[in-house]
Amino acid sequence: MSGVVAIIDYGSGNLRSAEKAIARAVHDGGLANAVVVTSDAEVVRGAERIVLPGVGAFADCMNGLRALDGMVEALNEAVRRRGVPFLGICVGMQLMATRGLEHGAHAGLNWIQGDVVRLSPGDPSLKIPHMGWNSLTLLSRHPVLAHLDAIEDPHVYFVHSYRLQPAQRSDVLADTDYGASIAAVVGRDNVVGTQFHPEKSQAVGLKLLENFVRWRP
């Protein structure tokens, strides 16, 4: 029996959309994982893999995560010490950074060294927030990105005003262009994050989620 994919409920994120998309990816991939939405740190601590969605301001999301009793400690134990596979989505990806610079400087989880900074596209006609479909440029042969380039018209859906700027370029697994290069997928070791919403990205998103559930870092 495959283990639990835990989606963290901390008051921020498209939880039901993420749950339904991951459950569909599990089904379509012929997998047997259970997908649960939870705010219980002990469930997260014991999960086979962990998903952190996120919508809103960096500080609000980080404070929401810290407000769950024992959750940050459970995440650090499971992900950093035991190597449980982790996926951050949108602001959930940004929370992996060292700090967010939205309305002041706010500490993140510091799993991916770097800052979350405001979008500043060179083309003044490009609006903020960046909202809509953009193509991915794959920069790494990472297992979570496997076969995405074989999908016709591989576009993904973004909604964001800030972006993660990793200190190490090698942590960027895929990027997109929005008046400048934006980190669309980041990762190292057993953690990966997407600035876009795979749960809203149709075939590309479903394949990425299936790859994540299959991933054995």
Walkthrough of the structure:
It is a single chain. With 217 residues, the chain is α/β, with parallel strands linked by helices. The chain has a single domain (4-214), classed as Class I glutamine amidotransferase (GATase) domain (Rossmann fold). Helices cover 27% and strands 31% of the residues. The protein contains six helices and 14 strands. The strands form three sheets. Strands 2-1-3-4-14-13-12-9 form an eight-stranded mixed beta sheet. The longest helix is centred in the first third of the chain and has 14 residues, at 15-28.
Task: Sum this structure up briefly.
By secondary structure, the protein is of the alpha/beta class.
Walk across the major sheet and give the strand order: 2-1-3-4-14-13-12-9
Number of continuous helical runs: 6
Order of helices and strands: EHEHEHHEHEEEEEEEEEEH
CATH topology: Rossmann fold
- Note the beta-strand portion: 25-35%
Which architecture does the CATH hierarchy give at level 2? 3-Layer(aba) Sandwich
Distance between the termini: 19 Å
CATH superfamily: Class I glutamine amidotransferase (GATase) domain
Round the Cα radius of gyration to an integer and report it. 16 Å
> What number is the mean pLDDT?
95
Low-confidence segments: none
User: Which structural class best describes the helix and strand composition?
Assistant: alpha/beta
- Please identify the top-level CATH class: Alpha Beta
How many domains? The number is 1
| Overall form | globular
Amount of helix: 25-40%
Q: How many β-strand runs?
A: 14
Biggest sheet record: 8 strands, mixed
